[in-house]
Specification:
heterodimer, A: alpha/beta, Rossmann fold, 4 domains, 5-stranded parallel beta sheet, 22 strands, 18% strand, B: alpha/beta, 6-stranded mixed beta sheet, 38% helix, globular
């Protein structure tokens, strides 16, 4: 059967067909939908959201050691978190086949950096495959699991945003059910004490030689002969761009198995063509290795390593030819930045926090990162998952000793706190810094599209489970001063900030209200009382002071001709934060 | 030889560009074309500018296009058409919705919504403007604005041979099928008889 699938949907189908038994992940754009699409195969695959990527990789390794075929997914920066087990699995190898699906984000559509994780495969000495469309994404799960079991190696499948989120046609097939392999205690393999690992390093070097031989033989790396004046070596979505640019006027060495590279095959291909191009997105991963093997080629001297490519960019870079475009004055187009949604509990929180002077506010990764943008402007830094709390600690230690002119208010989301904020908060307590940590608990992992997490009471596959209590956790970490507030009550929020700022020891404020877009669970319905009546502006009373506008709510518009605000009731969810900030009580609930 | 066509659908997060692209892509697959579709998730969804690309033909390689490569630009919001106009071929077509969504700087009175956007576009490209919001409102459901625009796109692209009503039945939730078919037909009728691209 033919289906039009995204790369992520195709990987999920591939996992089903390839007989995967266990899959784990932490959500991260652009990889999130892989596990979401594996979750419905409840009978065949155990699928889990892990609290972070390191935990996901270790769980998947445990499943592999137990004899199962396992798969773990993450976005590129997630592999930084999981790098510790990842590198050592490079040495140990696996029992049941194991795949690590890694999604890079060229152009940083939804990321804090643009790292090229192909280097991780080389660094950790594991095999790597790279699909160039959805069919390959599905098929390569099966190839990867076979390679993993045949060579006793973890296989990294490297995707990019365009592979993950582009749809193309996929031919489906049946699931291949494989038995769980027996578990045999093997200290020389999985017990990486120095004496064991010294020998494992010897083994992995031998394994890489075997994998390179395989790379030269496998059909995953194939040549398409056309005119031999131009030869193109390419992989991943860049191959599709090269095909658009060169068509059948060039010969191609299309690589699907990209670590170790098939250097013999590359040499033979290079010998036959007059000019050799290496077309790859981001860094010169292939080009560097090809040049180091003494093969002349053209790559990054022409094609940029910054942001994602497209056929137009490849053509312009190589041939200085540009498609004609319509010329017009683009400057009249007004920017359309992403904003917090109408009724978002984060808006109320940042609105109130932003009024305070002399704060240093380390932020974190999630929707609430937008709290640093206008008009809220209530954030100083955003580095990586969990950094708000620990960065705040370090800042505060120096502030306490030398400057004494700031208070540190670290801001982190619920899922991010579970991910890697807990250890950071332990540092605050242990090393005694007087910071205020605000945990914005919107009852879901919001930014990536509403995934459950250890705090929601549900698993990925819809089972009810323990609902982690953030107050209990922070108290157990040693925080004595803990308050939970409803952020939509600005007075309550203000008093809570006052309370925390007066303290001489660390505190935690939990801002607890569901994401405005969340489909409420039965627990949410029990806990939160909603007044869903929308708000309206009495324009007779409105004096155009813009206090409501400065909350940044997308449902509120200021009409400069009459100098009055108005509220779009199709967007308003009745959070009534604007009512609370209006000094003239010109805003009320519709009909009241 | 290369008969690949490229469609660029743009709008604002939440306007239903993705559903329209999905119906379009499914129909093109059923009609026997090779199809690729690309969209961006994440940050861009939060009220930001969004785009979806659909490419179809005998054999499609790249899921995305560069500047000056779209055969048609369908803009669900007026100003967005201007933002993406450089991706259109100089002889390409524009279908633009007469529907303005002020972005955050405009809502907050930091910037003004640009004047005369449609005139600028009409001056530069073969443009059809439709009031999809009004059409959808007349049909009794403003949410089907996306399918009205989809109908207009089908007409403008000359893709009327495909049984779109059947595709809509297969891709849209059952209770919304009738209203979506009405919206589709209204969108088709809103576009003056268009020459096939």
């Amino acid at each position: 059967m033919k289906k039009l699938l995204t790369g992520n949907e195709a990987v999920a189908l591939g996992a089903y067909e390839a007989g995967i038994h266990f899959a784990a992940a932490y959500p991260g754009t652009p990889s999130t939908e892989i596990l979401e699409n594996i979750a419905p195969y409840k009978e065949e695959i155990i699928a889990e959201w892990a609290p972070n990527e390191k935990v996901a990789v270790e769980s998947a390794l445990g499943a592999s050691i137990a004899g199962a075929r396992s798969l773990v997914t993450m976005k590129h920066v997630g592999l930084n978190v999981a790098a510790d087990p990842f590198f050592t699995i490079g040495y140990t190898g696996i029992n049941g086949g194991m795949i690590l699906v890694n999604a890079d984000d060229p152009s940083l559509h939804s990321s804090q950096n643009e790292q090229d994780n192909r280097y991780y495969a080389k660094f950790a000495k594991v095999a790597m495959v790279e699909p160039s469309n959805s069919q390959e994404a599905k098929d390569m799960v099966k190839s990867a699991i076979e390679i993993s079991e045949r060579f006793d190696t973890l296989v990294m499948m490297r995707l990019t945003t365009r592979i993950c989120h582009s749809k193309s046609i996929v031919e489906t097939s049946e699931r291949e059910e494989v038995p769980i392999k027996p578990y045999k205690r093997d200290l020389q393999k999985f017990y990486t004490a120095p004496a064991v690992s010294q020998q494992l390093h010897v083994k992995v070097e031998k394994k890489l030689k075997e994998l390179e031989k395989f790379s030269n033989e496998t059909e995953l790396n194939y040549i398409e002969w056309n005119d031999k004046k131009i030869g193109v070596i390419s992989a991943s979505v860049a191959y599709q761009y090269a095909k658009e640019v060169f068509g059948d006027k060039a010969s191609y060495l299309k690589l699907g198995f990209t670590y170790p590279l098939p250097m013999e095959k590359i040499k033979k291909f290079a010998d036959e063509v007059e000019t050799l191009y290496v077309v790859e997105e981001l860094e010169p991963f292939m080009e560097e290795q090809i040049k180091a093997a003494g093969i002349d080629c053209i790559g990054k001297e022409k094609i940029t390593n910054i942001w994602e490519l497209n056929p137009g960019i490849v053509e312009k870079s190589l041939f200085e030819e540009e498609k004609p475009t319509i010329e017009y004055d683009e400057s009249v187009v007004v920017n359309r930045p992403p904003t917090l949604c109408a009724g978002c509990p984060h808006r109320a929180f940042f609105y109130e926090l932003g009024k305070r002077k002399d704060l240093m506010i380390p932020g974190d990764i999630g929707c609430y990162t937008l709290g640093g943008a206008p008009p809220l402007n209530a954030m100083d830094t955003c580095i990586c998952m969990g950094a708000s709390v620990s960065l705040g600690h370090g800042f505060e230690k120096i502030n306490e000793k030398y400057n004494k002119d700031k208070r540190v208010v670290s801001v982190i989301g619920d899922s991010t706190f579970f991910h890697s904020g807990m250890t950071s908060l332990l540092d605050v307590v242990y090393n005694k810094s007087n910071t205020i940590t605000c945990i914005l608990d919107n009852r879901v992992t919001g930014m990536t599209g509403h995934q459950d997490n250890p705090g929601t009471g549900y698993t990925l596959q819809g089972e009810e489970t323990n609902m982690a209590s953030i107050p209990d956790i922070v108290k157990a970490l040693g925080i004595k001063n803990v308050k939970t507030v409803n952020p939509l009550e600005l007075d309550e929020l203000k008093k809570t900030f006052d309370w925390a700022l007066e303290l001489d020891e660390p505190s935690v404020i939990i801002s607890r209200w569901p994401c405005a877009l969340k489909v409420l669970s039965k627990y949410d319905k029990e806990e939160f009382e909603y007044d869903l009546k929308k708000c309206e502006v009495d324009q007779g009373k409105c004096i155009g002071c813009k206090m409501c506008v400065n909350t940044g709510c997308p449902a509120i518009q200021f009409d400069k001709t009459i100098k009055k605000s108005s509220i779009d009731t199709s967007q308003c969810v009745g959070c009534d934060v604007c009512m609370q900030v209006c000094p003239l009580k010109a805003i009320s609930k519709v009909g009241e | 030889m290369d008969n690949t066509k490229s469609i660029l659908l743009v709008g604002v997060g939440g306007q239903g560009t993705i559903l329209a692209s999905k119906v379009l892509s499914e129909g093109l697959v059923e009609a026997g074309y090779d199809v690729k579709m690309s969209e961006i998730h994440g940050m861009a969804q939060r009220g930001g500018s969004v785009s979806t690309q659909v490419r179809f033909g005998d054999k499609v390689f790249s899921p995305i296009i560069g500047k000056g490569e779209a055969d048609i630009l369908v803009s669900f919001e007026t100003m967005e058409a201007l933002r993406w106009l450089e991706y259109l071929k100089p002889d390409g077509k524009v279908v633009v919705n007469d529907y303005k969504i002020p972005s955050a700087p405009i809502l907050m009175d930091k910037e003004d919504y640009p004047e005369g956007v449609i005139d600028i576009i009409k001056d530069k490209a073969n443009t059809s403007m439709i009031d999809a919001a009004k059409i959808a409102e007349d049909l009794g459901n403003t949410k089907v604005m996306n399918i009205v625009l989809f109908g207009a796109l089908v007409k403008a692209m000359g893709l009327t041979d495909i049984d779109w009503e059947d595709v809509i039945r297969k891709t849209v939730k059952e209770k919304f099928v009738d209203i979506n078919i009405k919206a589709f037909n209204a969108g088709m009728n809103a576009i003056a008889e268009a020459s096939v691209i």
